[in-house]
C-alpha cells in the first residue's frame, strides 16, 4: 500500500493474535517492525520469524526490512519510555504506533474488585495513552508526520455486561482516538482506530475451541462467521498508509455487521 515502505512501526502486544498479524502484514508492506511483548519471548520470536519470512522469503539479509523485538509492559510508564527510546535508537525514528495490547476479564460488576478494574484500564487505556504520548512527543520533536492506530473493539459502542472495565476501556479508546486526532491534526499526526468484532485469536480461546459455543457466537454475527486477524491487519495497513492520508479521528468497525443491530434483520416491531 502507498507510503508504507521504509516506515518504522511499533506494535504493542505483537506476540500473538491480531498484533502478530499486523506485524506480519506491515512487514510485507515494507515497514520496519518493532514487536513489543510483555511475557512470552518465544511467541515474539515466532512473530518476527513469520514476518521476516513473509516479507523477505529467503532473502532476509538483503531485503531491506528490519525487525526488532522489544520487551515491555504497556501499563508501566518507565518501561514504555524505554521501549520507545529503543525503537528510535535502532530504527532512527518512529513513524507509526499500533496500540494493540489488551486484556479482558469477566466478573459481575457488583463483585468486581478495584484492583481488577484498574488492571484492565491500566493496560487497555492508560497503556494506549502512554504509548501515544511518547510517540507524539517524538514526532513533534522532529516536526515529523505520523500515524497512530488504536485497536479498539465493537465494545467501543456496544455495552458488555460482566466485562465492565473492558467496555469502559474501549469506550475511552474511542475518545482517546478522537481527542488526539483533533489536537494534532494540524501537525500531520493522524489518529484512527479499528474496532474488531469477534475475531479468532487466543483472547477468545474459550469459544473458539468449543463448536457449540462458537456456533452461538457466530449466530449473532450477520455475516455468520468470526473475523480473522488478517482481516483486522488489512484495515490497519490501510489506515497506516497514504491511501488514508485524509482520514483522522475515525473508528473503522470490522465486524461482519455486528454493530448493525442484528435483531432488526427481520421486522419485529409493528
Ligand atoms: P491476544 O490475547 O492474542 O493479544 C493481546 C496481546 O496483548 C497479547 O500478546 C498479550 O501478551 C499482550 N498484552 C497484554 N497485556 C500487555 C501489557 N501489559 N503489555 C504489553 N502487552 C500486553 O488477543 P487479540 O484478540 O489479538 O487482542 C488484540 C487486541 O484486539 C486487544 O486490544 C483486544 O481487546 C482487541 N480486540 C480483540 C477482539 C477479538 O475478538 N479477538 C475483538 C475486539 C478487540
TrEMBL record:
<dbReference type="InterPro" id="IPR020904">
    <property type="entry name" value="Sc_DH/Rdtase_CS"/>
</dbReference>
<dbReference type="InterPro" id="IPR002347">
    <property type="entry name" value="SDR_fam"/>
</dbReference>
<dbReference type="InterPro" id="IPR036291">
    <property type="entry name" value="NAD(P)-bd_dom_sf"/>
</dbReference>
<dbReference type="InterPro" id="IPR050259">
    <property type="entry name" value="SDR"/>
</dbReference>
<comment type="similarity">
    <text>Belongs to the short-chain dehydrogenases/reductases (SDR) family.</text>
</comment>
<dbReference type="GO" id="GO:0016491">
    <property type="term" value="F:oxidoreductase activity"/>
</dbReference>
<keyword id="KW-0560">Oxidoreductase</keyword>
<protein>
    <submittedName>
        <fullName>Sugar dehydrogenase</fullName>
    </submittedName>
</protein>
<dbReference type="Pfam" id="PF13561">
    <property type="entry name" value="adh_short_C2"/>
</dbReference>
<dbReference type="GO" id="GO:0032787">
    <property type="term" value="P:monocarboxylic acid metabolic process"/>
</dbReference>
Amino acid at each position: 500500500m502507498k507510503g508504507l515502505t521504509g516506515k518504522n512501526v511499533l506494535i504493542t502486544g505483537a506476540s500473538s493474535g491480531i498484533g502478530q498479524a499486523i506485524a506480519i502484514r506491515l512487514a510485507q508492506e515494507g515497514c520496519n517492525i518493532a514487536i513489543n511483548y510483555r511475557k512470552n519471548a518465544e511467541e515474539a520470536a515466532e512473530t518476527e520469524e513469520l514476518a521476516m519470512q513473509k516479507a523477505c522469503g529467503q532473502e532476509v539479509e538483503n531485503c531491506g526490512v528490519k525487525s526488532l523485538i522489544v520487551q515491555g509492559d504497556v501499563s508501566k510508564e518507565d518501561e514504555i519510555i524505554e521501549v520507545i527510546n529503543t525503537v528510535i535508537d535502532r530504527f532512527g525514528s518512529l513513524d507509526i504506533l499500533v496500540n494493540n495490547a489488551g486484556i479482558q476479564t469477566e466478573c459481575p460488576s457488583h463483585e468486581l474488585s478495584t484492583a481488577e478494574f484498574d488492571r484492565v484500564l491500566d493496560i487497555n487505556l492508560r497503556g494506549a495513552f502512554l504509548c501515544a504520548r511518547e510517540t507524539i512527543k517524538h514526532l513533534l520533536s522532529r516536526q515529523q508526520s505520523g500515524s497512530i492506530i488504536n485497536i479498539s473493539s465493537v465494545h467501543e459502542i456496544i455495552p458488555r455486561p460482566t466485562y465492565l472495565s473492558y467496555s469502559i476501556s474501549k469506550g475511552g479508546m474511542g475518545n482517546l482516538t478522537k481527542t488526539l486526532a483533533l489536537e494534532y491534526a494540524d501537525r500531520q499526526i493522524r489518529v484512527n482506530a479499528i474496532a474488531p468484532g469477534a475475531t479468532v485469536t487466543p483472547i477468545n480461546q474459550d469459544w473458539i475451541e468449543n463448536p457449540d459455543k462458537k456456533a452461538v457466537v457466530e449466530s449473532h454475527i450477520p455475516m455468520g462467521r468470526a473475523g480473522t486477524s488478517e482481516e483486522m491487519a488489512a484495515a490497519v495497513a490501510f489506515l497506516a498508509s497514504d491511501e488514508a492520508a485524509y482520514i483522522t479521528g475515525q473508528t473503522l468497525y470490522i465486524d461482519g455487521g455486528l454493530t448493525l443491530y442484528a435483531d432488526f434483520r427481520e421486522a419485529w416491531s409493528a
